[in-house]
Amino acid sequence: MHQNDKKFQVAQNVIEMIESGTLLGVGSGSTVNIFIELLVQIKSKIDACVSSSEMTTKLLKSKGFNVIELREAGKIPLYVDGADEANAHRQLIKGGGGALTREKILADSSDKFTCIIDDSKYVKMLGKFPLPIEVISIAQSKIALEMIKLGGRPVLRENFITDNGNVILDVHDLKIEQPIDMEKKINNIPGVVTNGLFSIRPADKLLISDGNKVIDI
Ligand code: 5RP
C-alpha cells in the first residue's frame, strides 16, 4: 500500500471515533491534512477546532470549521496529530513541518492526545529522524555547539521561519536512549524555545497503519 493510502487509513480510523459536540485540537502535516479532508464528512459533530499552525488554521477555515484560540478553549478534550517518529512508549519526534512548539502546547493542553502515523515512522529508538529544535535566532550558534557536545550534528533549516518568528536546527545522529532526560536537557539550554521530543507528555493513543490494519498502541 502507498504511504498516502496508509495515512488515509489511519486518519479514517480516528474519524470513526469522534463524538458529537467535540472541541478538537488539530495538529499539522500531511497526515493531518488528510484527516481534515475526512473531517469535513462529520463537520456537524465538531463544535470548534484549536489549531497548531497557520497552515492548519488556513485549511480548517477553508473547509468552514470554526477555529478558536487556545485561551478561549481552555482544556482540549481531544488532540489529533501526526509525528515523524514514534516508539513503543508512544514517545515521539515531531517538528518535521516546523510546528513543534504550538503542537507541544496543544498536546500539553489536551485530555487525550491521539497520534496517527504510518508504519514507516514506528521505531525501536528515536533519533534516526533529525530532531528539530526551535531556537531564538541570536542563540543559534551557541545552541548548535551544545548539540555537538551531546553527540549531534545540527543543521540550520534553510529559508524557514516558524509561526513564532524563530529558526529551526535539525539535529542529526543523536542517540536518544533516554528521551525524557534528553528532552529536559535540551529545553534547559537558554535560547531553546522547545525541542521536538514529545516524551514528557507522550501520546495517549498511537494509531499505526501498516496497510492492512490499524494497530492501536
Ligand atoms: C509538524 C509535525 C508533523 O506531525 C510531522 O512532521 C509529520 O508530518 P507528516 O504527516 O507530513 O509526515 O510534527 O510539525
List the helices and strands and how they pair.
Elements: H1 3-15, E1 22-26, H2 30-39, E2 46-51, H3 54-62, E3 67-68, H4 70-73, E4 76-81, E5 85-86, E6 92-93, H5 100-108, E7 110-118, E8 131-135, H6 140-149, E9 153-156, E10 167-172, H7 179-187, E11 192-195, E12 197-198, E13 205-209, E14 214-216
Parallel strand pairs: 1-2, 1-4, 2-3, 4-7, 7-13
Antiparallel strand pairs: 5-6, 6-12, 8-10, 8-11, 9-10, 13-14
The structure holds ribulose-5-phosphate.
Ribulose-5-phosphate binds at residues 27-31, 81-84, 94-100, 103.
Task: Supply the key terms.
7-stranded mixed β-sheet, 217 residues, alpha/beta
- Characterize the biggest β-sheet: 7 strands, mixed
What fraction strand? 25-35%
Task: Tell me the span between the first and last alpha carbons.
Answer: 21 Å
Name every ligand kind in the structure.
ribulose-5-phosphate
Order of helices and strands: HEHEHEHEEEHEEHEEHEEEE
Percentage of residues in helical conformation: 25-40%
Backbone structural class: alpha/beta
Mean pLDDT over all positions: 97
What is the gyration radius calculated from CA atoms? Answer: 17 Å
Shape: globular
Low-pLDDT ranges: none
Strand order of the largest sheet: 3-2-1-4-7-13-14
Number of helices: 7
The total beta strand count reads: 14
